[in-house]
Amino acid sequence: MNPWLAMLAIVAIGTLLPLQGLVNARLAGALHGPVMAAFVSFLVGSAVLGTWLLVARTPWGAAPDARFPAWIWIGGVLGAIYVAVFTLLIPRVGAAAAICLAVLGQVMASLLLDHFGVLQAQRPADWTRVAGAVLVLLGVVLVAAPWKSPPPPL
After folding, report:
1. What is the tens place of the pLDDT at every residue in 86-114?
2. Measured between alpha carbons, how far is residue 8 from residues 2, 5, 28 in Å?
3. Where are the domains of the chain?
4. How far is CA 43 from CA 39, 49, 50, 126, in A?
5. How many CA atoms are closer than 13 Å to the CA of 99, on its beta-carbon side?
6. CA 73 to chain CA mean position, Å
7. Which of 35-39, 60-64, 77-81, 146-150 shows the lowest mean pLDDT across its residues?
8. CA distance 23 to 38
9. What's a Pfam family this protein contains (predicted)?
């Protein structure tokens, strides 16, 4: 796939995250909090992915066994924590600030994971990449504007 097209696709998918957070926050208000909303979100998402696998006739991979390291299952745990906490906090800080703060955390963690080659090839955090992270931080400060008082709740 063309790298520019791949990046454009990621930007397009990224536009869905604030909407997902806002929808889940409303769902949390209708249900019994953010963990229940995250559970329902993952349940619906699992049903969609299961249907996708069936329609695409995707063959099953190797059955899980002792050759799989224990940490291989943590992705679902991390995703559940992310969605539940995001659902809880997005009404408190707003969609734009929440996404910016999440992106800042992702950029900082990604630079470290790349630099040390955690679970992938090593990509050093040179001065241009660090400068980019600093610019992301500046953008977060400007978007989140912590010096402004928040609007009244709905």
Report:
1. 889 988 888 899 999 999 999 999 999 99
2. 10, 5, 31
3. 11-58+72-93, 95-154
4. 6, 10, 10, 41
5. 13
6. 17
7. 60-64
8. 11
9. DMT_YdcZ
